Amino acid sequence: MDNSKTISEFQKAINKCREIYFKKLKDYGTSWRVMRPSSLTDQIYIKARRIRSIEEKGDKNIKVDEGIEPEFIGIVNYCVIALIQLGLGPGEQITTEEALKLYDKEIGESTALMLNKNHDYDEAWRHMRVSSFTDIILQKLLRTKEIESHNGKTLISEGVEANYRDMINYALFALIKLDNAC
């Protein structure tokens, strides 16, 4: 299987997300360093619920005219921030350079996971609807919240890190599908 098209599309979507992350770093610094991963999970949940609401009501019936693309970008970026916070824990602000380095590390690990899963699943995501990505992200969020309520302990399941990585990848797939629909 030739992954070159997927890699190229994935990188284009990542670049869009990273650009927004960088600009927000310039505007706000790393004020997110104060947030606990559970608060970030709730922030991601808000984004996913808004996407679902727009999908169900349609673009014409929303009051804030931003569409779903910025929300998927927000999911990617908040998941990356959550992964950073899992590693560092909430704390003092860090430099923009360090925040970008950590972003690239987490996105790199998520991309490696995507490539392995994409190979095994034979690009099944290409046959999925954007609304299915939304539902899967919501499911992953509910799983994450449940794991968080158990202080991160699971009996058999992957932990919160795996769920954040999956949400990153599903949101990036959604961005690719939205971009290709234009």
Question: In words, what does this structure look like?
Answer:
This protein is mainly alpha-helical and 182 residues long. It has 6 helices and no strands. It has helices spanning 4-28, 37-57, 69-88, 96-121, 130-149, 160-181. Helix 1 crosses helix 3 (69-88) and helix 4 (96-121) crosses helix 6. The two termini are 26 Å apart. The model has no long low-confidence stretch (mean pLDDT 94).
Features:
globular, mainly alpha, single chain, 182 residues
Q: Which spans of ≥5 residues are poorly predicted at pLDDT below 50?
A: none
Helix count from the secondary structure assignment: 6
Structural class: mainly alpha
Approximate strand percentage: under 5%
**Nearest-angstrom radius of gyration?**
16 Å
N-to-C order of helices and strands: HHHHHH
Taken from the alpha-carbon principal axes, the silhouette is globular
Major sheet attributes: none
Mean pLDDT: 94
Span of the ends, CA to CA: 26 Å
The total of beta strands comes to 0
Classify the helix fraction into a percent range.
over 70%
In short:
With 182 residues, the protein is mainly alpha-helical.
Indicate the topology.
Blueprint: H1 4-28, H2 37-57, H3 69-88, H4 96-121, H5 130-149, H6 160-181
